[in-house]
Amino acid sequence: MRNMTEAEMTDVVLQRYADAPDPRLRTIMRSLIRHLHAFVRDVRLTEAEWLAGIEFLTRTGQISDNKRQEMILLSDNLGVSALVNMVSASVPEGATESTVLGPFYVPESPAREWGESVLLRDGDDVPLLIHGRVLGPQGEPVPGATIEIWQTDANGMYDIQDKAQPEHNLRGWYRARQNGEYLLKTIRPTSYPIPTDGPVGDLLRATARHPFRPAHLHAVVCAPGYQKLTTHLFDAEDTWLDSDVVFAVKSSLIRQFTLNESAEAAAKWGTRGAFWELANDFVLSKSE
C-alpha cells in the first residue's frame, strides 16, 4: 500500500503482523504497535525527539555487558519491572511476596556452608545472621531448598561494580536442611544510589528524580515442585522505603533487624560478639 495517511498507518502495520505464526508473539507485537502509535500521536512526537529516543536506547544497549544491565535498570526506573512482577506473580495467601530481580544478579554464585559468611573481605563489620525455615503453602518444610542471596557492600556497591571487592563478595547460595531450616551470615545491608553514569542517570537528572534504593538483601529461593521466589528483605529503619527509585518495596517484605549482644546466642549460632539478627521464613507457592 502506498501513500498512507496518518489515520491509515496503524491498521496497515497491524495487518503486516496478522499472520505471525506464534499466537503469543502476534498478540504482543500488535498490542505494542497500537500503543506505540498512540503514544506518537498523543505527544505529537517530533523527528528530533524520535532521534533522541533512538540514541538514548542505543547508548543503553552499548553500556550493557555481563556485569551491568542498563536495559533492566531502565525497565526498573520506568516501573515496568515492578509492574510485570505485579501482573505475572500469583501469590497465595501466606506466601512470601516476590519483587524485581534487579540488574546486578550474577548466575552461578558459589555455594556456602551452613552459617558461612558471604562477606569475603577483611573488616570489623557487625555480622547479620538470618535464620528460619523454607516452607510450603501448608506450612510443610521444604527440604533441600536453595536460598541464593546478594547485596551491596557497606560502600553501596556490588562486587561487580567495585574492583576492590573480592569476586563473589556478598553473594552465594545456601541449602536448607531436611526440616527446611537455613542459616546464612552476611552484613546489614545499606541504602545506595543506582549507577548514574549512564543513560538512566541522565534520565533521572533530566526528570529531577533521586537515584536511591532502600537498604535490602536480594534472595532467590528454589525447590522442586515449588515456584521460584525472587524477592527482597528490606531494612525497616531505612529512610528511602517510600520512594524507592525502582518502585519495588512491598510492606510484607520489610524486616526489623535486631542487635543481639548475648554471648550465649552468639555461641548458639557459631559467631562471636554482638550481631544483627533476623528470624525469617520463606513461604513458597506450589508449581502449577
From TrEMBL:
Domain Intradiol ring-cleavage dioxygenases: 130-158
Cofactor: Fe(3+)
GO biological process, one term: catechol-containing compound metabolic process
InterPro entries documented for this protein: 1_2-HQD/HQD, Catechol_dOase_N, Intradiol_dOase_C, Intradiol_dOase_core, Intradiol_RC_Dioxygenase
Keywords: Dioxygenase, Iron, Metal-binding, Oxidoreductase
Gene3D superfamilies registered for this protein in UniProt: Aromatic compound dioxygenase (2.60.130.10)
Pfam family for this entry, one: Dioxygenase_C
Record SUPFAM superfamilies: Aromatic compound dioxygenase
Domain of life: Bacteria
MF terms in GO: catechol 1,2-dioxygenase activity; ferric iron binding
Family, similarity comment: Belongs to the intradiol ring-cleavage dioxygenase family.
This protein's name: Intradiol ring-cleavage dioxygenase
Organism field: Caballeronia choica
